[in-house]
Please model this.
Amino acid sequence: MPTPTESTAAGPVEAFWRYRTRAVPVCVALAVLAAVFAFLTGGQTRVVTDMFLTDPRGVPVFRDGTTAATDVASYLTQRAQFAQSDTTLEQVAVTVGRGLDVEQLRGIVAATVSENSSIRITCTSNDPTLSLAVCGAVTDAYQALARADTQRRADIAIGELQQQRQALLAEIPSGQTSGSIQEIEVDMARTAKQAALFDAGVEFVDAPREVASSRIMPLVQYTVAAFAFGLILTGAIAWLAALRRPIVNDPEVAAEQLQAPLVGILEDGTSTNSAEVLATNLSSVAGGGVLVVSGSVEGSNHSDLVAGIAEAWTREGRQVLVVDGNLRKPRLSARFGAGLSSVGLTDLLGGLATEMAAIRSVKLPDGPSMNFISCGQSVDHAASLLRSTTSRSVLSKLQERFDVVLVDAPPMMDRAEGAALASVADGVVLVVPSGVPSSDLVALRRRLDVLRAPLLGVIYDVDRK
Model:
């Protein structure tokens, strides 16, 4: 068999899942805050207006009088781009004020070509009055700039005609006229007239109108974005934490780090078959005396396992006494029908009850009876009571009456009571769940050395709940 090695560090997904109890609430909290913010700031308001443009075909100032259909489509596209260009938006910023700049207006204004040869101006913002003001300012700025452009084109065309006229006048005798000069003058008048008629190239403009705004879409967008940000943030933090705290996913590694033999692997929970196998294996390492079974951390399946092992040994004919030493979570007391007010371990250690009063008989299904001591009533400073000389004396007397005293103890890393019971026991068996951090096992081994508690074996729980 190859030498076991520590498992590699977790990946991002595995790390997030390991710390999900902390990461998921953070993601949910960010999503809720984003949703509240989106709701309070209100939905965005869209204001639209349509500018119906003059057909430029046949106007000498534009497209040289061509009538090609593609020229109209290109013209509309160019005009839509001009309506949302920086040149237009600079004038809109001056008109509207409110500290707006071109960069902000780019996020508000959009111009598109409609099917009916018009340009639709859409202004979207959180402020309805701002959307209306910007939308009106865009159409005004467009018309002013387009009108100036038309006049500029007309002036250039007329200027060229004037140069031609001056050239012809210089060639003919003084006082005479020419038909060519008259044609040029007619063209100049026609160009000026067409420019005046074409003006800004806008037939009419619809009044800006507000489109029904929705709070749902911004709320959903903010919520999803915040949740995604939370996933990325907590995932990155969890990954960094996982890199610093690698986990153990190999039973051989767990036993090696705890420096104890591996006496069993739980792969199907605490089934009867698993308990029978573990009871057999434990018999080879724990002959008798006071045996404490504890989990390394909270969440270990050790309480039900203690009951299963005790039942298996009882059916073998051994005199077994089960003690519920898990004072904070007395699962065995609940399993065997002993309430918190029942006489139990704390009463016995405190001198408030005798062994005869504390020990109760539990009838197993289709089998013999098993002896059991419940946790007893809640007391202050329970850890001090459990590691007292009285505790050692009481447990010593009990082991004289029974083949084995099997104690269910709280997790060693999380509860002082678990360490206290381990310090007065003849042996300790640890249930190690899959995925426990390697550093926790090292710290647990050191704690057991300080307590001088003999670790008899390790049970590896693959099916951690």
